[in-house]
């Protein structure tokens, strides 16, 4: 599968008697410092879309078990604005489950996923909507530039995306986060995918449909700090790799085969050496190294297989991906 931009069909999404609606999904975890500002910027964009294009909107904030005043602030926003809905999760479930919770509640004809920290400029939503109206089902923001990120984060992100694509079965576009617009059809498709290890950008690539990129500069965080420390980034990368590919397992097969072939060469050499010359292949050092090598290799491989088995185990429990404590502002739906 490849993700060169497919050109849209002749389908042009026109507002049918003003009935089109956009849902914005904003996952929030300890974002008290920035949420007010985010809301104001989102609101400005959406109000202008409402008046210029008759595009109705709702903003769904998902409070991912924040420990600060985020929930209080979201409550205030919901009280003062009929477009605001809040889904409060029962604890911190993580970014991807939080986005999933928002998608599950979104009622719009299209949905935009955007972070709360204003790293993704809300103003781009207008351009995304334009492309959606032209018939694209997925418009993903593609970072051309990232301000305020450490060189380390940039480099690891780069290596990660390149590596993932070469390993996995779907092509995930480079330098793309979760900031994107997706059509209702895609939202429903994602909703039907019940996998636990949610790697949304991969899942959205996997579903297909007409996808296109919208280049943008990723700004620095407006306030607060990143909730993706190195440990989480590594786990996230692992999720991406393991849930989108069996490549690690295939790699193990190739590795085993190579070692087997190599050891055969060694055996032939040892025998010929003994028969044709008066020398022995001697020494316990070589033996020791070989044993250690194989032992290490086998443990590593076992661990890798174990990782897949563990995921099967977790999946077999079929627990919900997240639990909701409270819904606020869903006036139209009980
Ligand atoms: N987030 C979340 N739950 C978490 C961690 C993060 O909902 O457990 C949200 C966070 O509030 C933000 C978005 O996910 O809106 C992206 O997080 P962050 O900005 O910390 O990640 P980064 O941009 O540094 O990769
Ligand atoms: Mg961020």
What's a quick, concise take on this entry?
The chain is an alpha/beta fold and about 325 residues long. The chain has helices at about 35-55, 70-80, 95-105, 125-135, 150-165, 185-190, 200-205, 230-245, 245-275, 285-315; strands at about 20-30, 55-65, 85-90, 110-115, 140-145, 175-185, 210-220, 325-330.
Describe what this molecule looks like in 3D.
The protein contains 10 helices and 8 strands. With 334 residues, it is an alpha/beta fold. The chain has an 8-stranded mixed β-sheet, with helices on both faces. The protein has 2 domains: 2-227 and 320-328, Spore Coat Polysaccharide Biosynthesis Protein SpsA, Chain A (Alpha-Beta Complex), CATH 3.90.550.10; 247-316. The protein starts with 20 loop residues before the first strand and ends in a 6-residue tail after the last strand. 49% of the residues lie in helices and 17% in strands. It has helices at 35-53, 70-80, 95-105, 124-133, 151-167, 184-191, 200-207, 230-243, 247-276, 284-317; strands at 21-28, 56-63, 84-89, 110-113, 138-146, 176-183, 211-218, 324-328.
